[in-house]
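Q: Could you write out the predicted structure for this multi-component system? I'm mainly interested in how the pieces pack against one another.
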Amino acid sequence: MKRSGASLLVETLKTEKVEVLFGFPGGVVIPAFDALYGEREIRLVLTRHEQGAVHAADGYARSTGKVGVCLVTSGPGATNTVTGLATANFDSVPLVVITGQVSRNMIGNDAFQEADIVGISRSVTKHNYLVSNRKDLGRILREAFHIARTGRPGPVLVDIPKDVLTEASAEPIPESVSIRGYNPVYRGHPLQIRRAAQVLAEAKRPLFYAGGGITISGASGQFRELIARTGVPVVASLMGIGTLPSDHPRFLGMLGMHGTYAANIAVQNCDLLFAIGSRFDDRATGNLKQFAPHATVVHVDIDPSSISRNVQVEVPIVADAGLFLEDFLPVVTAPSISDWQAQTEEWMRTRPLAEVPGNGGLSPSHVIRSIAAAFPAAVITTEVGQNQMWTAQYYTFHEARTFLTSGGLGTMGYGFPAAIGAQLGNPGKRVIDIAGDGSIQMNIQELGTAVAEKLPVIVAILNNGYLGMVRQWQEAFHARRYSGVCLNRAVDCPPDCADPGKACPPYAPDFVKLAQAYGAVGIRVTLPEEIRPALEEAARVTDRPVFLDFHISREANVWPMVPAGAGIDEMMNA
Amino acid sequence: MKHIVSMLVENRQGVLARIAGLFSGRGYNLESITAGVTADPTVTRITLACQGDDLIVEQIKKQLNRLIDVIRVTDLTGLPALHRELLLVKVSAKPSQRGEIFQVADVFKAQVMDVGHDTMSLELTGSAEKIDDFIALLTPYGLVEMARSGLVSLERSRKTPLPGAGPARRTTRGGRTGQKKERE
């Protein structure tokens, strides 16, 4: 039986068990949207911007472990996906992004809404395709899903010309996928696994360094068993948060630029650093020359190119984190490390994270701890900047896949659409975007999506009227020359203002009215005693989004902080 | 140090762009790259020459292996291998100089492809060093135009049978499918 490319596309999405499709139509994808008309098995979510569609698919994928799927048009529709693709590529998120393309006979002619999206997206995708033959469409779509979800996951873009969508063909959807150049290694080498067990058994001051790979492979249960059996302390990268409960007695916290004192000092003093599913990002390691100077390094990662790239590794193991732990647990011997455990406990007890003072406003740490108390089992997304670091530091995470944040690319505007995707994938959970007043405005148009889909996403804006993280750097390293960071600034402000005062507007924009204009709930919170009632009110709303506008101290900072280029034990205000 | 990497890749549009883009995007130094189809029309062999310390070259090989369209990556550096480059050169040659240039060509076993009124065109195949020497000798006459192909390489064949194997059998190194293997 012959069918159009568009019809085959929809059938393939069903074969791949796609339940939610984030999309935005345009000229060349009208045939695909036509094939979706009246479709009951796939929920088509119309976002208000293609970037929102990709981040929403990303939030859906990170929170559920399934592949997130988008459908957008050619040209600007396709180029608007680039930031979302790069975000997902950095953080190993499985996505399939389908872009329309102009008809094959027009490609290369500078046709209306033509863009070489395969060329543009090559370096921000795991793989991408231009479908030049209708008969290849089924195979390419199956390959795209396979590549996206296997190995080190990542986004795959499939560019489909309009006339491929309309051309009829009888090619069936392939049953299976086989790609001769793509055979990821999943199981670690048995000899290396035994060596890893041996160095762990002999270590005096071992430390596990948990990365997002544990979450991605669904191995946080096995990882918790490993910690229970060995008693080895754990530090986590930003992406590794949630692999162990934040309040677990062996969890020292996040390492790196805004890591805890205990985590960073433990890294610098350990004699074995055992990394699983992490890639030694520069924000985690600080100055590499000074990083973990006494440590033998074991590194488990599914991507061989992540191993021995930044840090020389003594025991490299190319493996999926979950399968590694399956092989490793039977051969583990617990080391005798009671002195080391006592030492790390003392660091945690004597140098905990300080509460952020709320000078002239709310304390951001108080707000986040209150959110954690009111919504202990929420899925949390963040934007990027101070809001992200404070959330990593002060929210108590219990489970993997409950902390969604743009770690590698650091994309402002990620959190709100990601929360929409996470809410669609987790209808039974509360989803909260902890945002800043700067980054929420980068994709605020998705309020329209959240209201239309009746999603009770809560957006907790930590509103300080600044692009706070840059302002913090300007305060710390540029003599308070607040250049281009004040969000309350107007054209008639002095160009060298560093001390906002009485004449400044209290806020810009009015987020409460903005939320209400979209049909969402908006609540402004300026006093500590208003925090709990506002959260309780938000908890009662179940059919639309809630904006909570928390007015925090304008010049609150994220501490501790390791200056760029310094070793991670050179912490300011630890 | 210079490394010669031989790769088998899918014969599809955009593969060369992926590889070239990887080098430019990650700041690796690519000296030359050549591509041509193998006996299997779905497979292309790419030979590239790159510069970098051991860590960088190790990363380059890992990054090349990550590409979905790359079937196999072999680092020929330090392995017995055949390396050849092709040169076409047009050199100034007044009628009185033709004899000398013929002699140089003869020594290098270069072919004279074309003779014009005041230029000659020559073809030479050989190692990059041999081609460098040949160009150096022709330079005094005046190089009008030249084109170098970049390196193509193949691993040399085994000279003895595999231990325990039967009579020596020719193994084809191209077009083998399955897991990517990297030779150090």
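A: Regarding packing and overall arrangement: The domain at 3-169 of chain A is CATH 3.40.50.970 (Rossmann fold).
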